[in-house]
Amino acid sequence: xxxYIDPGTGSMLFSIxxxxxxxxxxxxxxxxxxxxxxxxxxxxxxxxTHERIAVYSEGKQYxxxxxxxxxxxxxxxxxxxYFTSAEDDPFFSKNxxxxxxxxINEGNKAFAFLNFLQADICLTTTPGLDVYQFKRSRGVxxxxxxxxxxxxxTSYEIFGLDYxxxxxxxxxxxxxxxxxxxxxxxxxxxxxxxVGSTYLDVLNARSAENxxxxxxxxxxxxxxxxxxxxxxxxxxxxxxxxxxxSDFNVIIRPHPQSLRSESEMIKKLKQSYSDRFSWDFAPDxxxxxxxxDIMISDFSSVIxxxxxxxxxxVFYAVQNFNMEIYDAGxxxxxxxxxxxxxxxxxxxxxxxxxNLAARLKESTKDVKLLEAVQKAKAIAWxxxxxxxxxxxxxxxxxxxxxxx
Length: 404
Known about the structure:
This protein is an alpha/beta fold. It has helices spanning 7-40, 63-75, 107-114, 174-185, 198-209, 231-234, 237-244, 258-261, 263-272, 286-291, 302-310, 336-344, 356-362, 367-380, 387-403; strands at residues 51-57, 80-84, 99-103, 118-124, 139-146, 166-169, 191-194, 219-222, 249-252, 278-279, 294-297, 314-316, 346-347.
């Protein structure tokens, strides 16, 4: 007879274990410090293990988020520690003098490390602090979340940002949803700072050097989100078969999380269309974005990246979207993303798939769509080119504040 523990229970047990382990760790550490103080009469210097600024990256796909921040920290000669779950993180090819880096493994091993972290500030893109395995460390004074998209800040799964002390935003509009949830849930108001978008600033600089679209036949990029509401999960072959029968160059770029959470589905689709489509699993999406003439997506924030950087047409499908598992599900109004998609992109429904090739060929750079894109860009992506500086301004100011 075998004992089976479902993933949810396993996650809960791990969280309980980490909580107990953390409490014991700090209890014994404090006891050791007190004993040494009584024996020597000297106060111990713990600065060797305490970071001023700690940055955590879940993987190298987030390098463009953190690089402008690290570059600015280095320019100002501010020391920091960069912890990553990617053994081949681009960080390790940099020659920073003031920033040290460490690979801390993935999943529970990484969270076990982070849950004992000692730092004045911990900055990360990882949502769900104090919800699942990622727990607040007693050794960290301030947790700051930086958005890795220009999407609504309520697009995370439920309680995604609730337990952060501050959130760094790409646009002023993102504040409204966070404040509404804080009031509904009785949360302490977080510090919300609009800094712009670090990763879009990086891609924008690259697009200025290379803005050519696909050559020859039209190139169509299928770039969905992940989960049960996503394009590939919901429609799969119903969407891909018409594209396979067309004369388009087709690139399929699954969401990075699909490779973890939906690996079997991706494997089957890749096998079915291995000879027809190009598949892009690279951490950096710039090559696919810059090489595509048209994008097909769902509710993924990559739509905004494509529109804002290149101004090319986007088709999207979001039929029967279930918001129950997302923070946005508790809002009184429709999220900004779904409102603006109706203005900047072209909606397609399942019954349109059979004529999808014809629809794509008919698409042009509609002047009204381009005007709507520019308006949306001004709302969602503020302080273009300034994000790295503004992020470090905030971090440096917070360090001074924590001294008092």
